[in-house]
Specification:
single chain; about 140 residues; alpha+beta; two-stranded antiparallel sheet; 4 strands; elongated
Length: about 140
């Protein structure tokens, strides 16, 4: 068993391995595979195989510089999506205690305590005062 591990470690030496883009491809593969259990489409099957091939190609690639560049391009696209979804989940989680409102001047999102009625709020970013009405 020890001999197999040393051979596997030797095989993976100098390979790129898993990164965020490969993890995304794997998650996308799982979603498509589950979706295909119900739909049974040949097009989705082909797409699943292409994703697996790309994922394994990236993991076992020796051209680390190109794979890092691909990952950086993916992260440029993925980070805004991830930030938006995490903010949405946070807003849903805090719906009982907080309210989110935009400043009418600088458009930054403010997290305010949930107190019914009209309130005057001082924006921490542009330092302008404006009124906020919280209904429920």
């Amino acid at each position: 068993m020890g001999n197999f591990k040393s051979k596997l470690a030797g095989f993976m030496y100098g390979r790129y391995g898993m990164d965020e883009f490969s993890q995304f491809l794997f998650a996308f593969y799982l979603i498509l595979a589950l979706f295909n259990l119900f739909i049974r489409s040949n097009i989705i099957n082909i797409l699943i195989y292409v994703i697996i091939l790309v994922m394994f190609f990236r993991v076992f690639s020796r051209n680390i510089y190109k794979r890092q560049n691909e990952n950086q391009k993916f992260l440029k696209l993925w980070k805004p999506v991830k930030a938006k979804t995490s903010l949405t989940f946070r807003r849903i989680k805090e719906i009982k205690t907080k309210r989110y409102r935009k400043c009418p001047h600088c458009k930054s999102v403010l997290r305010l305590p949930r107190k019914k009625g009209k309130h005057k709020v001082d924006c921490p970013r542009c330092h302008r005062e404006f009124e906020v009405r919280i209904l429920w």
